[in-house]
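User: quick one, fold this
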Amino acid sequence: MSITPLMPVYPRCDVRPVRGEGCYLIGDRGERYLDFASGIAVNLLGHGHPRLVKTIADQAATLMHTSNLYGMPMGEDFAQRLVDNSFADTVFFTNSGAEAVECAIKTARRYHYANGAAHRHKIISFDNAFHGRTLGTISATSQPKMRDGFEPLLPGFQVVPFNDLDAALAAVDDHTAGFLLEPVQGEGGVTPATAAFLTGLRKACDDHGLLLILDEVQCGYARTGTFFAHEQYGVTPDIMAVAKGIGAGFPLGACLATEEAAKGMVFGTHGSTYGGNPLAMAVGLTVLDEVLADGFLDHVKAMGARLRAALEQLIPNHDDMFEDVRGMGLMLGVRMSDAYDARAFVAHLRDHHGLLAVSAGQNVLRILPPLVIDESHIAEAIEKISAGARSFAEAKAA
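Assistant:
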């Protein structure tokens, strides 16, 4: 037998973490890494956060799972608090971001069905997007690496260029249900939507009876310095998918919607065996307490501004390698010149300088630290990136 026990769908590196401490990961050989990947924007409270650890232990000893056949007091509490702090009127809890996006798509289609317009099922999405790995979510993308070999994909999706309002409006027809997009594309290159683009989509939805569906799985939950990224645009969605940071490491996601947008989601239209289980709800409430605590979002904004300024100051020293800094808050990317490969640079930083980061589309070094970093972590990261850039360039020249 040549296949590995773990299905070989990930090109796993040699780092094998066995423990986490705050903003650091420790490998199985005792090596220590500054974690500026955060499990791909998940571990917003870092590793081993005392309150989160206690919540999980206490709730695991009390009640972990009951199914959705019964009432869920903590789920009702958590949903109400999300409603109180967002645009939404109702919430469906999931186990992952892909499930949250699937629920968002279903909610949008069911809305038009409930209005007697079942033919309005087409979702307009955008190139370089990443919405998940299910058949529904890969159908909403145009990237061959996610789609090849899985055809036939689901009908009812049209992909147009990101940040091109004219192209988006031109795609609207009698079958359109709404637009699906990330306010800040993560996997696609840490690219924020322009204000004109996002406000233009909102106006088109209002003018044509469409739904604005936001995927804030990566950019939401304080990552950009506001609770949700769309708040910085002054735009309100009808439906939104969130995950990653909402559980700070515990598998959890949610689909949020207005009462009007969710009008078709009645008994029997959707479900999840594990979604909203007591353990997940206890975690979600604890994470929400931390994120909404006085000063937390201000800290993210301050650290995001400090990290961005430090990265921008770094570029002139390595202007043959780095081109610009992009992103919002603590969701940042450094575009690398075509002469250097971001994926290879991420591996170099990891293997030779003890810094964990992530690559993204458009040859971008993606930086996603825990939201609890301080000035010392930023200084350490910049030192490692600078030293890594020098040694990476030297290795290339050799």
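User: anything notable?
Assistant: The chain has twelve helices and 17 strands.
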